[in-house]
Automatic annotation (TrEMBL):
<feature type="domain" description="Ku">
    <location>
        <begin position="53"/>
        <end position="182"/>
    </location>
</feature>
<keyword id="KW-0227">DNA damage</keyword>
<dbReference type="InterPro" id="IPR006164">
    <property type="entry name" value="DNA_bd_Ku70/Ku80"/>
</dbReference>
<comment type="subunit">
    <text>Homodimer. Interacts with LigD.</text>
</comment>
<keyword id="KW-0233">DNA recombination</keyword>
<dbReference type="Pfam" id="PF02735">
    <property type="entry name" value="Ku"/>
</dbReference>
<protein>
    <recommendedName>
        <fullName>Non-homologous end joining protein Ku</fullName>
    </recommendedName>
</protein>
<keyword id="KW-0234">DNA repair</keyword>
<comment type="function">
    <text>With LigD forms a non-homologous end joining (NHEJ) DNA repair enzyme, which repairs dsDNA breaks with reduced fidelity. Binds linear dsDNA with 5'- and 3'- overhangs but not closed circular dsDNA nor ssDNA. Recruits and stimulates the ligase activity of LigD.</text>
</comment>
<dbReference type="InterPro" id="IPR016194">
    <property type="entry name" value="SPOC-like_C_dom_sf"/>
</dbReference>
<comment type="similarity">
    <text>Belongs to the prokaryotic Ku family.</text>
</comment>
<keyword id="KW-0238">DNA-binding</keyword>
<dbReference type="InterPro" id="IPR009187">
    <property type="entry name" value="Prok_Ku"/>
</dbReference>
Amino acid sequence: MARAIWSGSISFGLVSIPVELYSATEDHTVHFNQFQRGTSDRIRYKRVNERTGREVPYDKIVKGHEVDNGEYVIVEPEELEDIAPGRSRTLDIEAFVDLDEIDPVFFQKTYWLGPAKPEFSRPYLLLAQAMKKTNRAGIAMFVMRGKQYLTALKEDNGILAVHTLFFADEIRSPQDVLDVTPEGRAPRGKELDMAISLVESMADDWRPKDYRDTYTERVEKLIADKRKGREIVVEAEPPEATGVVDLMEALQRSVEASKKKRSGAKKKAG
């Protein structure tokens, strides 16, 4: 059984519900250690004083923030603790907002929130149903493991989900980061009609279970093949970029291929 990573209370108005927080996701990434090529020697990282070359114990390390070229302000761990908002025990809902108004770019990570004890189920379910009926999310701040989080609470099949959100100043504008931004007038006419036809021909229901991490599977197969001395199969190169002149023809062929694929899938299902 999973262990709660945080416990406290949801607070909205004069209502307080003891709850526990659980991670909603898990990492299936294949992790590697580092070795020196041609040897079985592990590569390990040490905290080393760059002037003396000696390893420094963890309790002798302080933090430094660069304020100018080569100039640092040194901060002791105790000083950070003194200004921290403290170990929060409350998810204090400050407002309920329309869920559809939250841009997906703000969502960071998801957690499940459950009642701390069975006797707290009634107010818990009441809050969940109220948010479901109104399509609203509760916006709350809380502190976990020394960090303050902005969160959105929402109902998910009778359970409360907590989504940590990026703060507004953490979201980067695409104009500030893209080397090349799309230019020219908006497409229209036959090309747009054909692109719409392609989108519609590929329309489907969202079924998360239809998708899986195939890259991790290939990494695991690579490891297994190398362990058994098998031949390594190289994946095909990605397709080349579609030229502007060939765009209409590529769209037409894509629509036809998509329709054939759907037709074949329906015959198999029948």
